[in-house]
Write a structure and sequence with these properties.
- With 111 residues, the chain is of the alpha+beta class.
- Helix content is 20%, strand content 42%.
- It has an eight-stranded mixed sheet, with helices on one face.
């Protein structure tokens, strides 16, 4: 069962997505589910995906929340800067924030 505020997903820059998929497949036996030409998801201990868009040039840890608006309020009250407001994507909604150390993270909820 998913818990509020726990690491749930990891997105990483994909660059040359076919080469990245080939590397992780050959080196570690990973398999992928493609969601369009610019995103490949994996489920290898921690679910995640590689993306070709460079909106976030570093790995992006993604936390879970049952109530996204309530979690957004908690994150803001704790002093985080919201870098991407709530938006919808296939299967859910999420927002991004920057913590006091400058790390960008996201919080998502399913639809």
């Amino acid at each position: 069962m998913r818990e509020d505020g726990k690491l749930d997903y990891l997105e990483m820059p994909g660059g040359d997505l076919p080469a990245v998929k080939a590397f992780y497949g050959q080196a570690f036996g990973w398999t992928f589910v493609d969601y369009g030409p610019g995103y490949a998801a994996f489920s290898e201990g921690l679910d995640g995906g590689f993306r070709t868009e460079e909106a976030t040039p570093k790995p992006l840890p993604v936390l879970y929340a049952h109530d996204l608006e309530a979690m957004l309020a908690k994150v803001q009250a704790a002093g985080a800067a919201i870098t991407v407001p709530i938006f919808e994507f296939p299967g859910g909604r999420r927002f991004h924030f920057r913590d006091p150390a400058g790390n960008e993270l996201a919080v998502w909820t399913s639809l």
